[in-house]
Amino acid sequence: DGHNSHTTYHFCEFAEKHKIIILCLPPHTTHRLQPCDVGAFGPLSSAWRKLVSNLTVQGIPIRKNNFLKHYSYARGKALTTVTIKAAFLKTGIEPVDP
């Protein structure tokens, strides 16, 4: 959202070095403009709920030592290239039309 606490000199230097364009969003608009909020977190939440339900039925508990394995699986199912591209399209951030 453009707040100065979200960027540092090193962050900007890294972005420039790797040809990454930093896009600062106007304040109080991230619920409409952030791709993750608009189109990625919903599918991730659904995939996680489905996985937890399946694990519960199988009697497999989620603990500290297996959480990342299970979360990574749900994340891989939900955050695909197609899902992420669709989220950027839905916000209007992509394609860029200056």
TrEMBL record:
Sequence ranges assigned to domain DDE-1 in this UniProt record: 1-88
Pfam families: DDE_1
Superkingdom as given in the UniProt entry: Eukaryota
Any GO molecular function: nucleic acid binding
Protein's name in the database: DDE-1 domain-containing protein
Source species taxonomy: Eukaryota, Fungi, Dikarya, Basidiomycota, Agaricomycotina
